[in-house]
Amino acid sequence: MESIRYASAGTLLRLIRSKQVSPRELMEETLRQIDAINPKLNAFVSLYPERALAEADILTQSMNEGIEPGPLAGLPVAVKDLEDVEGMTTTFGSVPFRDNVAERDSVQVERLRRAGAIVVGKTNTPEFGFTGFTKNRLFGVTRNPWNLERTPGGSSGGSAAVVSAGMVSLATGSDGGGSIRIPASYSGCFGLKTSPGRIPVGPMPILHINQISVLGPLARTVADAALYLDCVVGYHPADPASLPHPGFSYLAGLERLPAGLKIAFSPTLGHATVQSDVASLVENAVRTFEDMGHHVELFDDPMPAVGDAWNRLFGLDIYGNLHEHLDRYRSEINRTLAASLEAVKQSTAADLVEAQKVRTEQNRWLWHLFDRYDLLLTPSMPTEAFAAEGPPPSKIDGKPVDVLDVTAFSYPFNFSGHPAVSVPVGLTKNGMPAGLQIVAPRQRDDLVLQAARAFEKVKPWDSNRPPLE
Fold this sequence. Notes:
By secondary structure, this protein is an alpha/beta fold. The chain contains 13 helices and 15 strands.
């Protein structure tokens, strides 16, 4: 069954429904691949093979009895270790929580499982999803399937690595500043940052103060991500900010991209430094939209600088969930994270008002942009993946940069709330993946998926394989 290792979720589900492969057989093959590959990557940090096989057996039996399976029936999936699966540990990549067994599923996991997906295990993440590379004191470093000396990105780095390496076809992610799009770009897979509220979050110890972090998938194909979305969207009372079901299928509408779109291309957002070969790959990808008949214009109006304001509001949400543990576990929590949370603790009402003023200015900028254009294109990341152990680069093509400059294209759209994706656009001179970011108007998750699918049809990436063997 080696041929199915890199199969899309859609292909695997068709094989199951046609009974060419049983859920049990697929799970056994998935576990074999994980046993062979994961020791090189350290992407899965906990596995539940007996439970997964038992669930596969139950599903196989129900299908043999003629019971109609769910849309994800028998599909092995991975869950990022910031999210609860009943009976599995949720460590948050943090030593004090190494024995924290979840009492129930998160809303997203519950819906995936209800659709028939089988959770194989949990994937590595930096402590509380705080950094753009995946490393923590509890489980160590996760490595990129394309180059074991490089990071797969973060904070959904483990999820991106298991998809890219062919261990599973779908994995959950979360994105508060690029944590889906960063690893999608660095690891050569597809990542969707949804609109705030599109996928309900929680249940949480404390509701999010700001709608900055969202949930979404890491996938091999756009269709797989659209199917995933179909299974998890819709209001849930655990998340009062969650949106009603849109009333349509993202998968069914995937091929309906309108013709003749007007598209803005911003290669730097007015301030970013981009690695030269990454920039070239992105520019070639942008021309593909012109070849498809859309009108692309270079947009050089600089976006307002939002890094400090985003950092303050994003940190406030983390502090809200961690503040009771900070003093108790300070010696066991990453020093940089602890220092950042202490700074957030010292924030005043005036600081938060100033951050919201910046958000208002950015909102006006994007309001006017999307008055003129249907989509915005940028690089997903300014660089290829850096060293697995970190730190992020201090220079790009010889030019000094700050830490936030390394994620210059991702966090602004968490701050603004626009849906965005990262699609693979090829390999750099060092053989590392790069990505194109597509951003749509607010709540147009359908449009951003349609644009990604149109690009995928012209520039397919599914045949790209990391050189793990």
